[in-house]
Design brief:
The chain is 27% helix and 28% strand. It is an alpha+beta fold. One of its GO terms (molecular function) is acyltransferase activity, transferring groups other than amino-acyl groups.
Length: 197
């Protein structure tokens, strides 16, 4: 795997690039919307100051690492940020996460953005990715399936800071041809396999 940090990517409708200070206005409706953030661990960020603190404290430091994939999803038409895709815990679970502004839901944009990142990961011999979704959020699971990910197991976690018990389904896609199952969640939480169709 190459050592690289969030190279700019393009898809049919999107530019996937690093976040910048200029994106704060676009980030507020994304990170502050109650419905967008329902199934994410953090509470919605209601002020520009809160989003700025997250940008400077969490997102921008990722761009100092030797390997990172932390993308703003922007429309080609106007460079407006409407979502994000990132790979968390590189070297561990390699978990892909994503969110999209509500007005752009159900247009295939999340799948398009994630597929662009997966294509890049495959090109640089990234070994595998995982993804998890709350069982009450089947639309997120549908994105995982569109990416070619397959269900491996479910587990229950007390999610913080919301302090709620969530049942997650874990999906995985091996990009390097090696058959493996990431067992990190199995080792930490009660787990089981559901008879999914």
């Amino acid at each position: 795997m190459l050592s690289e940090n969030t190279p700019t990517l393009e898809t049919k409708r999107l530019i996937l690039r690093k976040f910048t200070e200029d994106d704060l206005a676009d980030m507020l409706p994304l990170y502050g919307d109650e419905e967008v953030n329902t199934f994410l661990p953090w509470f919605p960020m209601k002020t520009r100051a809160a989003v700025a603190a997250y940008l400077h404290g969490v997102i921008l430091p990722c761009y100092q690492k030797p390997i990172a994939y932390t993308y703003a999803v922007a429309l080609k038409a106007n460079n407006r940020v409407i979502g994000y895709v990132h790979i968390n815990d590189i070297g561990g679970s390699n978990d892909i996460g994503y969110a999209l502004c509500r007005e752009f839901w159900h247009k295939g944009i999340t799948s398009e953005a994630c597929a662009g990142v997966v294509d890049r990961l495959r090109a640089v011999n990234f070994p595998f990715i995982t993804a998890t979704h709350d069982i009450n959020n089947p639309y997120s699971g549908a994105v995982m399936k569109k990416l070619g990910m397959t269900y491996r197991y479910s587990y229950r976690e007390k999610w913080q800071p919301k302090n709620i018990l969530v049942t997650f389904r874990m999906y995985q896609l091996n990009l390097d041809g090696t058959e493996r199952v990431y067992t990190g969640y199995q080792q930490k939480y009660p787990h089981f396999v559901e008879p999914l169709p």
